[in-house]
Amino acid sequence: MRGSRVVLAVHFAVFVQCCSGYFNLEKENDCFCNLQGKVDECSCNIDTVDYFNNIKIYPRLKSLLEKDYFRYFKVNLKRECPFWEDDSKCSMRFCNVESCGEKDLPPGLKGAKNENKYTKEVNEQCSELNNEYDHLDTTLSEKAQKDIDLWNKYDDATDNFCIIDENDSDSEYVDLLKNPERYTGYKGKSARRIWESIYLENCFRPKYSSNLNLYIQNGILSELCLEERVFYRAISGLHASINTHLSAIYLLSDNKFGDPKGVWGPNLQEFQRRFSEETTNGEGPNWLRNLYFVYLLELRALAKAAPYLEKEEYYTGNENEDWDTQMAIKDLLGVISRFPDHFDEKIMFNGDKNLKYEFREHFRNVSRIMDCVGCPKCKVWGKLQTQGLGTALKILFSGKFDNLENTNSKKRFQLQRNEIVALVNAIGRLSTSIYKLDDFKNMLNNKGVNKNNNIFN
């Protein structure tokens, strides 16, 4: 009996020695330690989202976002920061944006043609609405009609959760495929001030908390009501997604005498710095969970707006490509409709009516902060992703997108082209982030194999 104990002790000692590398790998892999179980505030499991996104959604979005309708985003890069004077600009050449000239655009986006097309659509819809109510009062004066038009425009504006650049005279088209989101070297005080302003001044925070960290510790989120938690998780998830992109397409070499465009690729060390428990006071894995939350929230917005989006023409002036885009959208929306576990917006705003107004104003401020970003390329992608999330919130909470199946959706409201472009690109960014998490997991596992070959054989 005693000899058996000695043998077991020896075996245990060998096991510990052989597996010490495994436990070290677990420490390195702690970014993913909380990515299991149900997504917070939702009913769907994380592994279900991984499978659904990586196999069904990501490949479709990747192809769709290469279509001309979605690759050109109109943005104002000249608007001044409304909150502070900032002379700290990104000095790296990779911060610059390659804008589109008239000759670079699809025929349907050139000059006033595209604006006229959408303006005509809106006017026709307004005429249809007016005709419906002509029997009620046909004696409105010209001034009264103008006042009603102004009221309608005001009502539409109050439904928006973000500032939209599309109609600004200083706005210009940017080709998103030629200006991909990636690490540009924009960091330091200027970049930190952006997130400080978002988290400390615009996120709801526990009333009696003395914690002045940028983030809210996951353990005290329960002190917030559901709507406040949703706001924080959405912002945190967006932030996590952006940090994942920057780690996945990182500037590995800036040798001007080699590749003038730089050498880009995944940076595992940077990813671990941004998300490991050790470097984030234990919060990094929770931020990645919030990425899954905002993904499900925006996915629900696409599903809810499907009856409207299926009727959109996706007009660029190229008839064949426009038809292909319509078919690709219908295919994507069909797949999303068969995924039942999106975020449920009906549980929101059933109590305090002022909370919805406060929620919307906080997010509008977040969209204004994007004008303070000192890196032009970062500003493009910051504006696009906040506008995409803002459009999702508008679809979910404005009330105008309810019961679309029972109404002529083209008659009741109008999403601007930029809102549709931002919405689909934003879910594309979140989808890519979740897909890239698998790449980082594999990199960590391969790192473990190389270090401790005897464990994984």
UniProtKB/TrEMBL annotation:
Show the InterPro entries listed in the entry: Ero1 (IPR007266), ERO1-like_sf (IPR037192)
Q: Name one GO biological process term.
A: protein folding in endoplasmic reticulum
The principal localisation class reads: endoplasmic reticulum
Top-level taxonomic group: Eukaryota
The leader peptide range reads 1-21
Q: Which cysteines are joined by disulfide bonds?
A: 90-95, 375-378
Location(s), subcellular: Endoplasmic reticulum membrane
What's the protein name?
Uncharacterized protein
